[in-house]
């Protein structure tokens, strides 16, 4: 997490905005770090990670209630629509 800097003459709204920007910058930094790690990840390690992810997803889906499944599928459809538009 980025260190926070306090400003004496800063209003509460300015402070909230500054902190939100700092949080977003930290989040993006973590995403970039994750992406870099995956790019540098050896092939065998990647395959093992993906296999674990698939199994985890299967276990979660087996436990899903019908309403949860419909909600998940609706969200996936909406996400695909947005990506196509972009």
Can you offer a commentary on this structure?
Helix content is 81%, strand content 0%. With 86 residues, the chain is mostly helical. It has one domain. The protein starts with 11 loop residues before the first helix and ends with a helix. The mean pLDDT is 84.
Mean pLDDT: 84
**Total beta strands:** 0
Major sheet size, sense and barrel closure: none
Uncertain segments are none
Q: What helical percentage do the residues reach?
A: over 70%
Tell me the number of helical segments per DSSP (H or I, 4 or more residues long): 3
* Overall morphology: extended
Instruction: Note the beta-strand portion.
Output: under 5%
Give the distance, in angstroms, between the N- and C-terminal Cα atoms: 31 Å
Computed Rg: 20 Å
**Secondary-structure element string:** HHH
Number of domains: 1
Q: Which structural class should the secondary elements be placed in?
A: mainly alpha
Question: Main traits of this protein?
Answer:
86 residues; mainly alpha; 3 helices; 0% strand
Brief characterization of the structure:
The chain is mostly helical. Helices cover 81% and strands 0% of the residues.
Secondary-structure map with pairings?
Layout: H1 12-40, H2 43-63, H3 66-85
């Amino acid at each position: 997490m980025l260190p926070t800097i306090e400003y004496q003459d800063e209003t509460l709204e300015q402070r909230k905005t500054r902190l939100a920007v700092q949080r977003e910058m930290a989040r993006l930094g973590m995403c970039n770090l994750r992406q870099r790690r995956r790019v540098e990840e050896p092939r065998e390690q990647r395959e093992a990670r993906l296999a674990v992810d698939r199994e985890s997803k299967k276990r979660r889906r087996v436990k899903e209630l019908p309403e949860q499944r419909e909600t998940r599928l609706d969200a996936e459809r909406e996400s695909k629509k947005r990506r196509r538009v972009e």
